[in-house]
Amino acid sequence: MKVTLSLIKADVGGYPGHSSVHPMLKEKAAEMLENAKNNGLLIDYRVVGVGDDLQLIMTHKFGEDNEKIHKLAWDTFKEATEIAKKLKLYGAGQDLLKDAFSGNVRGLGPGIAEMSFEERKGEPVVAFMMDKTEPGAFNLPIFRMFADPFNTPGLVIDPTMHDGFLFEVWDIMEHKRVMIKSPEELYDLLALIGAKSRYVIKRVFPSERHPKIPKSEPVAVISTEKLYQIAGEYVGKDDPVALVRSQSGLPALGEVLEPFSFPHLVSGWMRGSHNGPIMPVGLKDAKCTRFDGPPRVVALGFQLSEGKLVGPVDLFDDPAFDNARKMANEIADYMRRHGPFEPHRLPLEDMEYTTLPKVMEKLKNRFEKI
Ligand code: F6R
Ligand code: MG
Ligand code: MG
C-alpha cells in the first residue's frame, strides 16, 4: 500500500517565552486531527510539542503537497493560534507569516517534511524534530547516516547498501538544487553541505541499483523552509524537522540514531544568533531553557502498519544518550563564556538575517575614512 507521511510544524505561541508548547494547543490540534481521522482524511496522527513548536505527524493516502492535508494543518495552526491569543502566549501566531492559504502551506511559514512510498513488510520510520536551529543542522547527521561508513557499517557490510545513496542538495539562497551521488562524489557533496547555512540536504534516495526500494522513493526528507526569506525580516529560526526510513537495505535504527551521540555545533540558540551544541532529548526534556536552548532534537520512532502509526517510542529518552547530553552541557558552558564574540555569536553574514542590521543602521553615518 502506498502511504504518505506528513510532518508539518509551526510555532504558534510559546509558553513561557519561546520555551515550550502549552498543553491546550496540543489538545486543540489533537481534536482537529481526530475529526479528520474520523472523516477518513487521515489514516492516523500524533501531536507533540518540541520546544515552542507544535508538531503534527500525519499519515494518509493523498500524496505530498495535497491541498486537503495542507489545509487541515493550516486550519489546525489557526485554531491553535486563537487559543494562544486568548492565553496571551508569547508570539501567538508567530510562524503563520502569510494569511492567504491557496492550496499549500509551503512558503506561508510552517515547516514541512513529507514523503510517499510503498509501505514495506516492516517499515520503521523516525520523525526528528529540532528546536532553536536551522535546516542545515541536519546536514551532518543525515550525511553520517547515509554516507559515512564509520557511522553506518551497513554501507560496508550489507551488499544492498554498497551502491550508496543519492543526495538532493538545495541552495536555499539561490533556490537551486543538485543531485549528488555518494560514494562516487563524496567530496563534492561535503564541499557543499559543510556550508550548512546555504546548502542543505533536502532528500536522500536509494541508488538506482538498490534491490529493494525503487529509486523514485525518498528514504529521508528534511524541511528546508527559511522563515526570514518568507517574511523579509527576522522572525525566529526555522526549527527543522526530518523523516527517515530505516532497516532492510537502509541504515538500521541504531545507525540512524548514532550521529546524535555527538552534539555537533549548530546555529540558532539565543536570538537565532549563536552557535551551540544540539542536545538529543526525550519529549519530557524538549523545552528550551538555558539561554533559550541549548538547541534540542527529539526522535520519535514508529512502525507503520497499513498507514497506522504504531508508536511512538521516544528514542532519545534513554541513558545511552546521557553522555551526549553531558557533552552538550559542557560545550554550552564553553561556548557561553565567549559572550557576544564569534564564533559563539554567528559570523556577520549570518547576522544579516537577524535584528543586527537595525543596530548597524544607527552607526552608519558615524564611520570615517581611514
Ligand atoms: C530563538 C528564539 C529566541 C528569541 C529571544 C528574543 O529562535 O526564538 O531566542 O529570539 O527570546 O525574543 P524576542 O525578541 O521575541 O523577545
Ligand atoms: Mg517562538
Ligand atoms: Mg521554535
What does this structure look like?
It is a single chain. By secondary structure, the protein is α+β, with helices and mostly antiparallel strands. 25% of the residues lie in helices and 26% in strands. Strands 5, 6, 7, 8, 9, 10, 13, 14 and 15 form a 9-stranded mixed sheet that branches. The chain has a 4-stranded antiparallel sheet with strand order 2-3-1-4, covered by helices on one side. Strands 11-12 form a two-stranded antiparallel ribbon. Strand 11 and strand 12 form a beta hairpin. The longest helix is centred in the N-terminal third of the chain and has 20 residues. The termini are far apart. Bound molecules: fructose -6-phosphate and magnesium ion (2 copies). Fructose -6-phosphate (F6R) binds next to loops.
What's the short story on this structure?
The chain has 370 residues and is an alpha+beta fold. Helix content is 25%, strand content 26%.
Largest sheet: 9 strands, mixed
Shape: globular
Please give the radius of gyration in angstroms.
Answer: 20 Å
**How confident is the prediction overall: mean pLDDT?**
95
Helix proportion of residues, in percent? 25-40%
pLDDT < 50 stretches? none
Count of extended strands: 15
Q: What structural category characterises the helix and strand content?
A: alpha+beta
Q: How many helices?
A: 10
